[in-house]
Amino acid sequence: MTANQADVRRYRPRTSVFWWVHRRSYLLFVLRELSCVFVAWFVVYLVLLVAAAHRGSDSYQQFLEWSSRPWMVVLNLVALAFVVLHAITWFTLAPKAMVVRLQGRPLPARMVAGGHFAAWAVASAVVAWIVLGGW
Amino acid sequence: MPDTITLQVTRYRPDADGPPTLQEYVVPLREEWAVLDGLNYIKDQLDGTLSFRWSCRMGICGSCGMTVNGDPALTCGTFLTDYAPGPVRVEPLANFPVIRDLVVEIDDFMRKLPEVKPWLVREDGEALDDVEFLQTPAEMDEYKQYSMCINCMLCYAACPVYGLEPDFLGPAAIALAQRYNLDSRDQGAHQRLDVLATAEGIWACTYVGECTTACPKGVDPAGAIQRYKLTAATRTLRSFLMPWRAR
Amino acid sequence: MAKRSSSEAVAWLLFSAGGVVSALLAPILLLLFGVIFPLGVLAPPEHAHMEAVLRHPLTQVVLLGLCVLSLLHWAHRFRYALHEGLQLKRLRAPINLLCYGGAIAGSLWAAVVVFG
Amino acid sequence: MADHDVVVVGGGGAGLRAAIAILQTDPRLDVAVVSKVYPMRSHTVSAEGGAAAVIAAGDTLDEHAYDTVSGSDWLSDQDAVEAFVAEAPRELLQLEHWGCPWSRMPDGEVAVRAFGGMKKMRTWFAADKTGFHLLHTLFQTSLQYEQITRYDEWYVTTLLVDENRVHGVVGIELATGRIEAITGRAVVLCTGGCGRVFPFTTNGNIKTGDGMALAYRAGAPLKDMEFVQYHPTGLPFTGILITEAARAEGGWLLNKDGYRYLQDYDLGTPSPEPVLRSMELGPRDRLSQAFVHEQEKGNTVDTPYGPVVYLDLRHLGAGVIDSKLPFVRELCLQYERIDPVHELIPVRPVQHYMMGGVHTDIDGATGLPGLYAAGEVACVSINGANRLGSNSLPELLVFGRRAGIAAAGFAATDRRGPGHAVQAQAADEHRRLERDLLARRDGRERIADVRTDMQHTMEGSAGIYRDTETLVKGADRLRELRERFGKATIEDDSRAFNTELVAALELGFMLDVAETIVACALRREESRGAHQRTDFPRRDDARLLAHSLVTRDPTGSPRVGYLPVTITRWPPGERVYGR
Ligand SMILES: Cc1cc2nc3c(=O)[nH]c(=O)nc-3n(C[C@H](O)[C@H](O)[C@H](O)COP(=O)(O)OP(=O)(O)OC[C@H]3O[C@@H](n4cnc5c(N)ncnc54)[C@H](O)[C@@H]3O)c2cc1C
Ligand code: SF4
Ligand code: F3S
Ligand code: FES
Predict the structure, then answer these.
(1) What lines the ligand 2 site, CB under 6 Å?
(2) Residue D270: exposure state from Cβ atoms within 10 A (0-12, 13-18, ≥19)
(3) Which domain holds residue B200?
């Protein structure tokens, strides 16, 4: 039995293009990654809003009308769902990458994540307060 | 509880033609039996030609990793009763070439492992005096978790990036590099940076996180990689801002 | 083995920064301007108020930062999604161009609008 | 045919330490490490409790030596023991310098714990995964030596011997079935123990005594094979070990009435705190024997997997258990579904370790020039009739290193390559294996059945207690089993990863080893340490303060002789525990 006699054929499974549908956790991962598309959409939407406001009161009103068309609302609802998914996964996962120390001791990841969620709440409140005319 | 359970086991013989097939065996269902005990029953009583690896049957040698009902698992620590009434599908670990039946080839990992220099690097050479390098329990806690890796390869089987990008260093190798980087006795972090902070190293990982879910020893390779990304990125930034201090 | 990559490090830092700012600010802004105002749950702010806020230099800086970083966040993630999710590794160069090129173009547009 | 300077067989603790020692001695040498499993899967990985070496203030080398000698029931060679205790601290420090995460004291120094049969706290530990950390540290350290060629998952089937000298080995590459000679000027056997000769063992599937049989077949004698260690605390069914450290941290052994029965067996009086060399911290042989007596008195609890007693850790609390014994908790939760923080752990004695092995001198040299041995496969001997817990891991290191240095020296002095006779031998072995693979397909018996019968034969005849009758019967049974083995079938004719072929080869080795165990046990008409003859209940220093040496006679049967024990400073005395 020499090397050439011994057949060393390996079976090499291929990863299918649809590998991510086979597992719930993979699907969630792919959805998380796709959230970036809606982040990009959010930027576009935001810049359009700013542009409209800058062009004057009329175009601002036009923008508001455009934004309340049903398909726009649906699109933005979907986008909202994705950016919320993005925010939640981001704030739960990101803290695992950093070690925050308090008096030399590492804080548990859950507390770091808690801090992030608190910051999220504060930021949202501030934005709402400014937009809704508290300023 | 029924007293038997069906195992659907992957059979693959490289010297015969054809791709892997599933073969069914009926084995006794006993409360204390792990999936591995079922496989040994098959090998000893039903079909001596079934091949798989195992040794310690106490979750520490890392040889018995397989895919059980779709999830990577150590078969010596996964119990048949948890799958009753069955059937239980037992397949080789995903993302690796299959040598035979349930045996996969892990040469790729064995080649990558030395690249990350998983040993203690000392710049002062190796001076073995009669005293130990001091290390407080707190300093040990920094890396302890990452030193628990048994090289079972479940994390590689769970990581889709490794499946798609075979050049990826992979979770366990990076976690082991971090095990030494974070060891207060080690001085080799900057040497490992060159291997780790590459497109095939940490930057290939998209933080799927499944490696950590699959790991039977609580190593958290996903966390190790993310932590290292932050370290590598800040070091790079520092070398841009303060090139004179960069190494 | 490939060489240590500092461009990846920079891309990842920007991606992370974008991840944080977009996670902090995008949900509330989209909620307000994409859902609540359009559905009439609350009245949208007056144009004058909007302009006052938007013309404030601090707002302008924050908005631009938000836009640029969020776009870079998108570029990085989208690039990986195309590489891995769709297994388009062969098309690495055009994909990178599309993603980062898109992000840069978008950033310029945002700068022009915000400060315009 | 691949040629190297030194061939190390085995990638466990002993093998890796030997390989590194060879290169520390002479970095120009080219070393092969051949192992039937990836090195980090070797059974050293499962050692839990710790490794003994004098480091703590107030401890002395003499005390470690005395504990070892008295623990061995005076059958160890005292020159070897003295060398061992003297070099052990340095070896463990070396491991520390290679990165081993030894558990520490608050100030950062290495911590030590108590262990059975030891008068001082001197057992270094890495929580309760000492062997795991030790093996991975050695393996990862070995990765930096480019002079090491690893043959991972290669199964060694024979030693090549010509003109009374070893020239290498023949191995099968498991993945492909390729058979090849791997030659070298010296061979170091580090193949570990043979626990799988018994049905109920803490040993992994790979511990099949291959190296002992390889040496025995090649003409090198085996020593003290009758001394088989039973560990008092194994989990029923799986045989998974609950480390002695559990008792060292303060665990109690209770019989079915909740009574600390060890006080009835001259092991001291119970106290709430652990007392060194007393009660639960007595030596393993005495504790396992006490179990058998409790069983005879009806004080054990019957379970589907045999009688058990209980190990009680509850009073230690979750804090101690999680910091010092996390793996014990993990194993109990996973394999018994009980939580030692709140529940009693059922335990029974389980075959654990082989004191005997390939006869070597203090440098690992066997009787056969060029052949060295170290680790559990070897018998130097420091363990004599009973090994103390936590002496084996330092033994791997101390004698792995010594054997490596000696082999490097031998390889450097004699650089002749293998001649024609060696090549012819390799070709013969090739043909024999081909025959096994291809021509045994229509046998009548399963390998597994013969193996199971052998294991039960061994338990019945050479267990914790033995007598003439059971041993003679055992020897007869083994002869029958050898015949049945000759007719057993190998259904699997694939060349790729043929585990049935490996199982058959292992069974062949185990049958040899089993025969030597029974033969030595039958000849030794006394009781000493782990060898307890009900028909000869006394120790007999006048006749048998001697090592048994067993060789294979021309008919293939074991022939037993004796070699005097080396006594330097500690004349034989009474073993006293708890008094
Ligand atoms: C559960 C358990 C707990 C233990 N706890 C402790 C403890 O706390 N303290 C202590 O001091 N001791 C302990 N021991 C004992 C100690 O762990 C062992 O004696 C020791 O690890 C044996 O090491 P080794 O290097 O000799 O062999 P192993 O680690 O068993 O390695 C044997 C090597 O030889 C190779 N090999 C074997 N046959 C062949 C072949 N035919 N061809 C090619 N390669 C081959 C194998 O692949 C393997 O690499 C424990 C043992 C067990 C089982
Ligand atoms: S990190 Fe965990 S899953 Fe991966 S090889 Fe190590 S022990 Fe196994
Ligand atoms: S699953 Fe893979 S992508 Fe990263 S976080 Fe784990 S290595
Ligand atoms: S057999 Fe060792 S990990 Fe399962």
Answers:
(1) B 149-155, 171-172, 175, 214-215, 217, 219, 221
(2) middle
(3) 107-245
User: Same domain for B71 and B125?
Assistant: no
Per-residue buried b or exposed e for B5-34, using 16+ beta carbons within 10 Å of the residue's own CB: bbbebbbbbbeeeeebeeeebebebbebbb
State the ipTM, two decimals: 0.94
DSSP D25-93: H-TT--EEEEESS-GGGSGGGG--S-EE---STT--HHHHHHHHHHHTTT-S-HHHHHHHHHHHHHHHH
Decide: D352 and D197 in contact? Cβ < 8 Å. Answer: no
Using an 8 Å CB-CB cutoff, list chain B residues near D129: 60, 148
Task: Give the domain ranges of chain C.
Answer: 11-115
Residue B135 and residue B87 in one domain:
no
Nearest CB to D500; choose among B48, B77, B136:
B48
Chain A closest CA to D153's CA: distance in Å?
15
Q: Are residues B135 and B85 in the same domain?
A: no
**Same structural domain for residues B93 and B117?**
no
**B35, B39, B60, B106: residue to mutate for ligand 4 pocket, most atoms within 8 A of CB:** B60
Using one digit for the tens of pLDDT, what is the confidence trace for A31-72? 999 999 999 999 999 999 999 999 999 999 999 999 999 999
**Alpha carbon distance D32, D407 (integer Å):** 13
Across chain D, mean pLDDT equals 95
H or E segment at B68? strand B65-68
Contact of D346 with D336, CB cutoff 8 Å = yes
**Which of B104, B128, B148 is the C-terminal boundary of a domain?**
B104
Residue B220, by phi and psi: left (phi above 0), alpha (psi -120 to 50) or beta?
A: left
**Structural domain boundaries in chain A:** 20-131
Is A20-131 in CATH node 1.20.1300.10?
A: yes
Radius of gyration of chain D (CA): 23
CA atoms of D171 and D459, how far apart (whole Å) = 31
Q: Is C56 exposed, middle or buried (0-12, 13-18, 19+ CB in 10 A)?
A: middle
Gap from C43 CA to chain B (nearest CA, Å): 41
Residue A120 pLDDT more than 50? yes
Fold of C11-115: 3 helical TM bundles of succinate and fumarate reductases (1.20.1300)
Ligand 4 near B20 CB (within 6 A): no
> Following DSSP, what letter does each residue of D389-433 receive, concatenated?
TTSHHHHHHHHHHHHHHHHHHHHHH------HHHHHHHHHHHHHH
- Cβ-contact B15, D496 below 8 angstroms: yes
Q: In this predicted model, what pLDDT tens digit does every residue of D379-407 receive, in sequence order?
A: 999 999 999 999 999 999 999 999 999 99
Q: What is the pTM of this model?
A: 0.95
Cβ-in-10-Å burial (0-12, 13-18, 19+) of D525 comes to: middle
Looking at the fold, whether B111 and B82 belong to one and the same domain comes out as no
Q: Return the H-helix or E-strand segment holding B47.
A: none
Out of D7, D17, D36, mutate this one to test ligand 1's pocket (max ligand atoms within 8 Å of CB): namely D36
